Amino acid sequence: MEKRATSSGVGVLDKAALVLSSLESGPATLAQLVAATSLARPTAHRLAVALEYHRFVTRDMQGRFVLGPRLSELASAAGEDRLLASAAPVLKALRDHTKESAQLYRRQGDQRICVASVERPVGLRDSIPVGAALSMKAGSAAQVLLAWEEPEKLHRGLHGASFTATQLSQVRKRGWAQSVAEREIGVASVSAPVRGTSGRVVAAVSISGPIERMGRQPGRLHGPALVAAGNRLSEFLRKAEELQAARGREMGYR
């Protein structure tokens, strides 16, 4: 079988891809970009600045070019469908095991969005509909979505939050977070991270319910179940990414 050509036939896109690929190994000055891509200096500069405008590239403290936040946003969007496809059975199993409503959250700026939810069928419950936008300043899911952020983002996120840096350090150590009347009076919750293939936290899986039933230390009872659910979803994402990569390799040899 014949291997697919390395050129797409659209020169400017191929050159932009060269610039992005050269930044995979880390920050680069303009001179280093020129050396890595073999592009003319004006061309490399023009492309890097254009990519910076669209946030595919940004600059570090030394002014070097680095991969920008738009790539992570697109990767998260691509992974979201895979995550949601596997979320329902995991959330149902979590609800059945803990007897509490289960949710999946993704961060969107200064809010966390409920992207999947399975409610306790009977009795007092904490109902959070899909699409609900909740604060990143309170709740166990907010703790999880912030705890593994870069130091600068973590510091900004703590401003005005109901939790502290010490609490987030504990979240990182034990792998789960808990809250008691932090987001809403009378409500407790426990959350754990869901990680993408790069190891980055891309979502938080949670349960929530009345304090009277979950207690003042809900994490001691439910923490392991949440960690297991988060690991299961992370494994689904890893396998989906491997499958997609395998299909991509097959498409490259036709």
Short description:
This protein is α+β, with helices and mostly antiparallel strands and 254 residues long. The chain has helices at 11-22, 30-37, 41-53, 69-98, 140-147, 151-158, 165-174, 211-214, 218-251, and strands at residues 57-59, 65-67, 101-108, 111-118, 133-135, 177-180, 187-195, 201-210.
Class from helix and strand fractions: alpha+beta
Strand content: 15-25%
Percentage of residues in helical conformation: 40-55%
How would you describe the shape? elongated
Describe it:
The chain has 254 residues and is of the alpha+beta class. It is built from 9 helices and 8 strands. Helix 5 (140-147) crosses helix 7. The longest helix has 34 residues, at 218-251. The chain is elongated, with a radius of gyration of 22 Å. The model is unreliable at 1-5 (pLDDT under 50).
Topology:
Blueprint: H1 11-22, H2 30-37, H3 41-53, E1 57-59, E2 65-67, H4 69-98, E3 101-108, E4 111-118, E5 133-135, H5 140-147, H6 151-158, H7 165-174, E6 177-180, E7 187-195, E8 201-210, H8 211-214, H9 218-251
Antiparallel strand pairs: 1-2, 3-4, 3-8, 4-5, 6-7, 7-8
Helix pairs in contact: 1-3, 4-9, 5-7
Keywords, separated by commas or semicolons:
254 residues, alpha+beta, 6-stranded antiparallel beta sheet, two-stranded antiparallel ribbon, elongated
